[in-house]
Target: NUDIX hydrolase
Amino acid sequence: MPAPRPQRLVRSAGALVWRFADPDRAAVPGEAIDPAVIEVLMVHRPRYHDWSWPKGKAENGEALVAAAVREVEEETGQIVTLGAPLTTQRYRLGGGQTKEVHYWVGTPVSPGSAFERLRAPVARAPRTEIDRTAWATPERAANMLTRRGDRRLLADLVARAREGRLATTTLIVLRPGEGAAPAANQALAASEPGPVPGTGVAPAPAPHPSRRAPTPAMVASAAARRAAQVERASSGEAEGASIPADPPLSRFGVRQAFDLIDLLSAFGAERAYASPSARARQVLTPWASMGGGSVTLVDSLDATRGADAGRHHIDARLARIRAFAAERLREHGSPAVLSVVGEAREAIIEEIRAHGAGSIASACVPVLTCGQILVAHVEHGDEGPVVAAFETHGVTTKDPSAPCRKGAKRR
Model:
């Protein structure tokens, strides 16, 4: 009897990229938009003789959102950031495979922006794969698109424009990686110089005269010790935000922090707020030091401060944390990141659910693992902000120190 054909899922990602026909017009969250004044970006595939949305397969170990922005740039040359998720398309392929394509609303950004600097360079798709790209009005695009599923996605985008739901804001909740083991933490503390008198900030270590130039691996392992330098360079005020005695990021957590750059860049994050926790600050170091945005330390985001005063005091701090999250949800500014730990993170997620639409408010509370983000997409109307969708994404950093699975072999 022949063996059954394997069932395999092929994961792809792309975006419906839109812009105003008038280059001087800017999107305003909550504003109803006439579809006739916008354009959408399509690609032509000579192999299939069709017009479709830019998309492509995710590479091994690549997050779907990173694949979406990479594929759009490869196929169109356009750098984009992602907004709200759209309907996932699924269809059968040959050989027992199923293709699953994830789409987001995409908006173009100008060349030379921070998002371009933060992303790996890409090569344009060959002309045998994509030979033409076109910006077209939704009416014209509906006549050009070949697949019925692509036209359904376009109808969804047009409906969002008419209803004032196309331009949204984004709030990202980040769970930092794990802290270093106590022994490693003590060794790190012993190796670091003391703070500069009157500043509370540790100076950068002086280079050893016989030491060779630092390699990328050495730079990565030193990221935690450079957190103070990032804080000084950030535009946020750090006065009054004392640093609790907690462990820094582990070596694996540092590696995750570097991989998080792709996720934060994909959603266009330009600013971040961090609690005084060492891990909450340090996880943003690679992103901020590469020009991703400013980091503001917020003392009130620490739910553990004053824990000796009793549960009533902690509940009062959690209420202030939820109020801080509600204020961020009401903003119409650029995407923001909240890097917090413990009960503070749980309180922020609860506040996001409280502002959610029916399906969001009744959904299970998402539990983030280390190195994961929760992305809330906020629509703005006359009755205030409404979280229309949220999604979770994580880095795929490999941990060589993790035990092998049973039956797995290491060579």
Q: What stands out?
A: Residues 1-6, 187-211, 233-244, 407-411 have pLDDT under 50 and may be disordered.
